[in-house]
Amino acid sequence: MEDVAVEVRIRGLGGELCSVEGSRLWTARQVQEAIARQTKIPVQEQRLFHGSLEVRASDHLRTLPAGEVLDLTLVRSHCKMEWVARAKEDCWILEDAPRWVRADRDIVLGIVKLHGKALEFASSELREDREIALAALQQDSCALEFAASNLWYDRDFVCAAIRQNGLHLISAAEEFRMDPDVVLAAASQNRAAMRFASGVLKRERGFILRALRQDGLLLRYCLGGLQGDREVVLVAVRQNAAALDFAARELQQDPEILSAAGLTV
Question: Does the predicted TM-score (pTM) go above 0.70?
Fold first, then answer.
């Protein structure tokens, strides 16, 4: 390949650092070495970015956009923690941060652990990252609205989300709203989560009996005539007498059921 000269302009967080005269045949490592000679910044502390993409030491400059001038951003390794430290004082720091910052996994993870809603300003790739989304969730359950939709097909993510707030079941993929274990976990955190369970599951007698042994008031959400099923209602009122309010009318005056609820006939 023809050796083509190129000016590599290096910017840091505070502005332009230096300019390096090089060749399109150079690797990024050669650029780093030239930067080190000019700025005294050790090669091992240098991270180079073209836009939001990190340039690896082995990458050749010829793989980057052609032109007489190439603009790169240099980030010193210790600068990552500076962004996280600044986030302690400014919860919106990620909103106006450079693209490379919003795409840096270490920085974003550190910031969402402090401010969950900062997930909104992370790169699209990082909003698909389970660990980052869960860290944001643990800090602020409202951050889930900014998580990538494909995460709702991830069982571990869904289970963590409903442990935080059972009502997040509404966002889960249908396969999880039909999963007895997932639905019961959601309902144990928030009874009203049963509203978002699959209709098929809420008609399934075996599942409903299991659910009512956990919480009799879940009788409210039963379908398929189960509120008129004597055994189902008995299980519910034995667990919680108030479940009687959700039984079919003809069973609300049933002596055996009233007795099971601790009420006199």
Answer: no
